UniProtKB/TrEMBL annotation, chains A, B, C, D:
This is Sugar isomerase. One of its GO terms (biological process) is rhamnose catabolic process. InterPro entries: L-rhamnose_isomerase, Rhamnose_iso-rel, Xyl_isomerase-like_sf, Xyl_isomerase-like_TIM-brl. Residues 90-266 form the Xylose isomerase-like TIM barrel domain. Pfam families: AP_endonuc_2. Transmembrane segments: none annotated. It comes from the Bacteria. Keywords: Isomerase, Manganese, Metal-binding. GO terms for molecular function: L-rhamnose isomerase activity; metal ion binding.
Amino acid sequence: MIDRAYALFEEQQQARGINLDLVKQKLQQLRIETPSWGYGDSGTRFKVYQKNGVPRTPLEKMEDAAQVHALTGLAPSVAIHIPWDKVEDYGKLRSHAESLGLRIGAVNPNLFQDDDYMLGSVTNSDAIIRRKATNHLLECVDIAKETGSRDISLWFADGTNYPGQGHIRKRKAWMYEALEELYKKLIPQMRMLIEYKSFEPAFYHTDLADWGMAYQMAMKLGPQAEVLVDTGHHAQGTNVEHIVAYLIDEKRLGGFHFNARKYADDDLIVGSMNPYELFLIFYQIISASEDQDASIVQTVNNIAYMIDQSHNIEQKIPAMIRSVLNVQTQFAKALLVNHAEVEAAQARNDVLGAEDAVRQAYECDVTPLLHMIREEQHLPLNPMKAYLEGSYDQAIQVRGKGGASW
Amino acid sequence: MIDRAYALFEEQQQARGINLDLVKQKLQQLRIETPSWGYGDSGTRFKVYQKNGVPRTPLEKMEDAAQVHALTGLAPSVAIHIPWDKVEDYGKLRSHAESLGLRIGAVNPNLFQDDDYMLGSVTNSDAIIRRKATNHLLECVDIAKETGSRDISLWFADGTNYPGQGHIRKRKAWMYEALEELYKKLIPQMRMLIEYKSFEPAFYHTDLADWGMAYQMAMKLGPQAEVLVDTGHHAQGTNVEHIVAYLIDEKRLGGFHFNARKYADDDLIVGSMNPYELFLIFYQIISASEDQDASIVQTVNNIAYMIDQSHNIEQKIPAMIRSVLNVQTQFAKALLVNHAEVEAAQARNDVLGAEDAVRQAYECDVTPLLHMIREEQHLPLNPMKAYLEGSYDQAIQVRGKGGASW
Amino acid sequence: MIDRAYALFEEQQQARGINLDLVKQKLQQLRIETPSWGYGDSGTRFKVYQKNGVPRTPLEKMEDAAQVHALTGLAPSVAIHIPWDKVEDYGKLRSHAESLGLRIGAVNPNLFQDDDYMLGSVTNSDAIIRRKATNHLLECVDIAKETGSRDISLWFADGTNYPGQGHIRKRKAWMYEALEELYKKLIPQMRMLIEYKSFEPAFYHTDLADWGMAYQMAMKLGPQAEVLVDTGHHAQGTNVEHIVAYLIDEKRLGGFHFNARKYADDDLIVGSMNPYELFLIFYQIISASEDQDASIVQTVNNIAYMIDQSHNIEQKIPAMIRSVLNVQTQFAKALLVNHAEVEAAQARNDVLGAEDAVRQAYECDVTPLLHMIREEQHLPLNPMKAYLEGSYDQAIQVRGKGGASW
Amino acid sequence: MIDRAYALFEEQQQARGINLDLVKQKLQQLRIETPSWGYGDSGTRFKVYQKNGVPRTPLEKMEDAAQVHALTGLAPSVAIHIPWDKVEDYGKLRSHAESLGLRIGAVNPNLFQDDDYMLGSVTNSDAIIRRKATNHLLECVDIAKETGSRDISLWFADGTNYPGQGHIRKRKAWMYEALEELYKKLIPQMRMLIEYKSFEPAFYHTDLADWGMAYQMAMKLGPQAEVLVDTGHHAQGTNVEHIVAYLIDEKRLGGFHFNARKYADDDLIVGSMNPYELFLIFYQIISASEDQDASIVQTVNNIAYMIDQSHNIEQKIPAMIRSVLNVQTQFAKALLVNHAEVEAAQARNDVLGAEDAVRQAYECDVTPLLHMIREEQHLPLNPMKAYLEGSYDQAIQVRGKGGASW
């Protein structure tokens, strides 16, 4: 049935004017980074439910991540979070990862769990705390050198809960000071990815609240600073794909933290709430990847796709498999947009025709295509089923409860 | 200055047609319940910062609550949360409270922190877990009998994170089953207050998501079931005072959980983000308190005003003092609305006149009035200053860190 | 290719345990009412762009609607709006519709365009205006008798723009009074569908603001009163399918006004913004249609599916074709959910398994199924293409600009 | 009573450490521009209700605006909208204004009411339409020269309603092209104010959707380009005062369009929904006005305060009087913040103390202060009462209905 399904799919896509060889090539290049912390326990402010079998050490997190990659072929790198993944010897962590077929991805500082940071880390009104926070940022550059990581991924919980609590413009200056010091320490092949978030844990103002603030900082810092878009960090009624297109056009889109949400920063499995939005994000990206401006194409090629979720109730490894598969599915669909057709409709101001040309790609079932890709890469056709039927999950139960957590 | 300020205030209000004797009488009757858990540590999913001096036991929580009441005269009762406030002998807890000039208020079951409840408590698909959850509800009625509490205050975290995860209509039936069993156990003078919440910790659907669901349950259960409005549990762009007026009119408004929010359920100090909204809520309530229908008036008189906040960064006792004072301030302002004037403007369809009549009351500075009330009650004019300059805060530092928390 | 595609589709669905005969039968029963006003000019407060060829009379609107039905087989009835569709002789309008293969659907009163209604129609503080408004409601029942319509579809713009402008509880009583008078005039086979809306054109409070208010009114009125869900009339972050399931369970879901939105009540083509939400609504409906309780099944069978959109920039007839096709597509996908599989996963608390079972149906491409249905009904395989290549659109250009509009 | 009230107020503010002379001086400098279109009919997409007495010509609009200024002393300039205010001889319009004690303020192009602009003006895919739109922008610079206006105020309705309808990045380039051409035509003393809006009338994407996009354009254009903040043009859950502070700090805040909203862009009377937000905006502005950086102070001094509302149901002139008074009230309150006290609390990380210091100023009743200011300026103490009791409103009734409108 798989071959017949693919044959039919091929025929249909050719009829739509789609070059499947190119599609397959781009699909094979898709890489999604999974986060070490996505394998540990996490939860809500009401409760963190501890799961049996979660990894107890950074090394075990790598082992779980290796499973996801082995079954999907999509996730060859793992982001780390310091100090959650603090180890004596990062060279050893790196070798361990490499021995599992992985590499260490982005390094994420943590500036929101030390008592000193309650009212701000790099934007604290206390200079000693700001110094401590900036030192931690610098430490992460050192770690990145050891792990061979390209990206320092920066999310700041800094903000205030009440009007008057902090001096907004002073805090802005302090934020820039810290970023500038970090920026100067970057080696040429490194990038600084600046994340923004509309709220939580700060409930009045967040120092870097939207893409505009992250972008303004990045512009002022220099070309190695780019913006990181977390899909759940926007106010309701924000067109995320518009921001994506805008940042690409300004050559400042560094990467994504993927997740899904229906309400606030729900951190659910990417693609599970409004999959069309994810498709439309990829539509903008793929459209830009065919731009005549080489620097736009380069920006697109350097986008880091990363998962950042909080699996409150899900089994950890299956949730991560589902996540990377959902990304792959929407990416594949977006590759089926016939851009020439869309642009022709746009040129003649044919609203419904242009919309239809985009939506049609979304409505395709890409299962035959994904099956073919997996077959060619000697991967299980159904990675989730393969995991659930495999022995790994059984084997890790011995770890017990109380492993790594936020 | 205080006497002169009050004299002038009196003159101004008389000119506005306000009967200050009545205002003062109603102000003196204002009672706001504080929650035992508001004195302990709480936080966000990112971090709970431990404060020095937080109470270590239910008894110590009562002592802290007694401070708030002693200084403000507003908070004579304390809501408890089971099992956070579980004690061997509730009679002893009650006596302790009474010895401090307090009484035990609403009893709040907790159905969101046991491992069994990860996917639902009373709406879990597992009948054994549902039974356990319902038993806990019943236990709370027993406790309420011992503590002399009138209200069982019900918030359920029950819901799902993904489409398909739960059978929405089955869960609705299970919810009703549990509530019905609880309802039957209530003694005549007891009430069941049903709270709703749009989301969190459930991120796809929450079994009791809005006032309509809580109301429908209450209607079906009977007259001792009423709705509890938590001011932070609505979608953005919800007119909360409209819901309040609607529920009063249907004689189903049982009480409030007060707090403030700018984004989601931020659980900040009530009145700190949009104080006008709090004023407008009280405007609806006070307007109804003068209704010709005695059952409407009775509904209003029985409304339980309760604080329910999460003080992530604030000092606990000062935050609670600020909270009850903010409620008192907006309540006082709402008492200054000249309803006859508003209704005359409404009757002649004078939009701006009616709006002005309401807003004018809000723009009054009620400090002279509150000073007078406090003076008459032998309370400190500035309760916050009195607390900060008193010795209690110093005395409790000996408790150290790591006290009670969520 | 079509036959091969269907053969493969059939095989795939059988492998998923889906009974395609049943699916096809339900698909053939799908009926979507289009609104007469959807064929005329409409716009935003900034501008109504006049299109060439829009119908000039109610009769011409029927002709346009007949095109949509002729090409899709989905839209055999047309909702009318009084006085926009006011005619001397409703019998003649009905005959005209019937001669085109259509019937007249829901009758919609209009209580928001007369100068008298600026500050409210049935909730105006002026009794004379209330009387006039109620009379219009009663007139609509008379019209419904003549047109043979089952449903009176009620949307009220009534509300206020400022705090204090109106007396919320009095207005509630006036609303009920009017509805009650209308209710008493219904003949047994008629239904009153009560719509709600969170805001617009009222910007402070809307008298019927949410499903809870519409439901409370319906409950009090009696069994012929039901709730009408307009998919765009909710605050952001509302789970619409939850409300749908809740209302079905209470046997009070009377129908839908379908449209799509990204921000407020954008009134875009249904299924164009978040098609998964539309699918999930149908998933709840179809799940309930298999309930063991016959009254639940009856509720589902009586749901009126209606389009209610504002085509600001789109060509009118193509926009309507796209709308009913989008509904058909998501309805078809929802029919492919294997409920036994979902419920088995729910029963074993398998979060990811249950989610996957629902999402899998959504990811199916239902084009082969829809082609087969159309072939069997002797309809064009691609109704949009058939319309665009047909002569009708050319023929109506003679109508010129300035036809019917809001 | 007024003198006694002021004496007491003075005493109280001195006790709070406030220099009332400075406060009064700043209050006297407050200038709020009213929009010519705010005096004409406007409404919602459902209905524009025509009011009796609305101005029929640009000259009559000036006369109405002059009333507002005469009674409040706050509104000496009037923004105009082209072509709504198109006249043969702008010199004559200017003289007329000046003869009434007014000057012409910002010039606002209109690019959303010509049929050509249905799918975009400066971002239309049709180069001829883009040219026409840009020409209109250039025409407005010419008009501004004649009227002596400093600011060209730019709001674009440009955007799309559906995914795929427009090429987002191409449209971005077209937007910049038009702005650049306009920018080059500015004379040195002119400014271009770039407004943004999250949605409406475009419902999928708006070309300039948020402050970040407006800011990026302004940065690229040069120092005469600044951002215009319309208080109603943000997603729910946006901290507007944070954006204000950010833009001031970047020296790119050019002005405001003031209005209030509870839901979307409701365009209600400023300060009527959440007055605390307006106060907090002014708190940021006034705080910056005392900055040591002279360019920050200069930015603040050049902020254009403008009303931009849509009075759907209100009487036009009274609504405008209320609007400027509400702005004055919150501005006055914000002047009472003791910045030294706030900053001292911030420095010691005293969350509640800092919040209290800000909120205290808000809770002051500034009526005595405003009365004194008005007395000193020989203005009526209660401008609204003066208007309603005056003869102007009676006199304009002769204009009849059907005057100027959107």
